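User: Run a structure prediction on this.
Assistant: Running it now.
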Amino acid sequence: MNESRNPSAIAMQTTVEADSQAVANSKSFSLWRLGRLIVWLVAISISLVVFPAAVGWMVAGWLCVYTFRILRGQTAWLPTTSACSALVVKGLYQHWALWLLMVLLIMPVIFCCLANRKVINIAPLPAHRCFAGLAWLALLVFAYSQIQSVGSRPITANPDGPVVCLGDSLTSGVNPYGGYPNVLAGQVDAEVINLGREGITTETGVKMLAEVRALKPRAVTIELGGHDYLTGASRNTTASNLEQIIVACQQMGAVPILMEIPRGAISDPYFGIERALAAKHHIPLIQDTPIRWLVYRSKPAPTRWLFFWAPPLSDDGIHPNDQGNRVLAKYVASCLRRYSLTNASL
């Protein structure tokens, strides 16, 4: 015999089941939001510590996320805002192409704010598609400007002169390893002279110009400015000294090759001083990638475990060991050959 169920009991059971399902959905939604937050925090952290040489790839990554959401019929402002924020914090060389890129990256969030306040009445998806296309175009312009602005003019040099390496302890080297010029001498078909001096600033470099001039070099690598920052010299003072060295090298018929100095893991307090000078004088620039590798792949660095399979490049956290000298010499030799200043050593 079938017993009829109490309507109130049925209603109560239905309510309990609905509440349980709501709680489960709420937990699932919370975990999803937490996961997205963690992914975003990791992505923005990577964006902040990315090398200046890879900034374009960083922006491209955020634009890919932005474009993917638009292709799915969704609007989003967080990817482009994250990319723009990273560019601002990193303190890069303020090139006009960078400003154009940052303006277009911030446009989606401005559009969303105006749309929410009913200030403008434009369909959101077509507007975001337009922003995405313009941002990709601005990124291409930025990448092209970085390639063309440095060392884009014909270069002349004393064809038979030596390569002079002017710098601080990164150039002079430390015992028992010596400096990268010793390794460079075996990689190129020119005499290499090490004028590195431990602890010197750009001001000392200016005072050494007479010594450099007497050598009649074909090229001069300039690795200075790190100790300017450590001793509290202003950006303007450092820029003025570096410019004096660059101009003097050009006047003596040598090609100045500027080495970029990293002054912070995230932000550059000197706002890309070497990039600005290299673009202004159209001289070769060796980006700070090899010096950053010295730090990140050094024995005391917390990031050492990320490269556990590779030998360390520094024993003390900044000065190169034998392996580090080989890395620095490789970048310098590549730059010399690119501008036909030397050939490979026989």
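The longest strand covers residues 163-167.
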